[in-house]
Design goal:
There is one protein chain. This protein starts with 7 loop residues before the first helix and ends in a 6-residue tail after the last strand. The chain is globular and about 35 Å long. It has one domain (8-140). The relative contact order is 0.27. The longest helix has 13 residues, at 36-48. By secondary structure, the protein is of the alpha+beta class. The chain has helices at 8-17, 36-48, 64-71, and strands spanning 56-63, 81-94, 103-114, 120-126, 139-140.
Length: 146
Amino acid sequence: MRRVTLGCLILWTIVSAGCGGRSLTATTALPSSSPAWLSELACHTATTMHDPSPSSIVYVQGGHEEAERIASGDVVYDDAPVYLVVLTGDFVAEHSGPPGATTTSGHVAHLTVGRDSHDVLDTGIGERLPDLSPLGTPRTLPTDCG
C-alpha cells in the first residue's frame, strides 16, 4: 500500500472546527469505556473526507511507536499512549499527498491520537486495512456521523 499522509488542510479543519455539532443519542450510544470526544473526532474526520456515514470506525489503545508501525510503517521514537482509529468507507482528502497532488482517495483512513492530549499525531489514507490485533481487540465507535 502506498501510504499518503493527509495534508495540513485536513488537520487544520479538524482542529479549528472542533468536534461540535454532533450530539450522541441513545441510538448512537458509545460502549461504556469509549471516550465521546474520540467518536466526535472520528466522525468529524470522516465527514471532512467526504464520507459522513463510513462503513466502520474502530479503535485500539497502545503506544505511539507500535501504533505507527501498524498503521503506516512510520518510525517514531516515543511510546506515549495513543488511540489508533481506523475508518473504512469512501474517503477523499483534498490538498494532500506528494507535492503537486490535489486529492487523495482511499477506502481506509487512520488517525493516531494522543490519549491524554487529544492531539492528532498522524493521519493517513489508503487501501490497506491494518491488523490491529497486536494492540488488542478493536472497539467499535458509532458510524452515524451525519
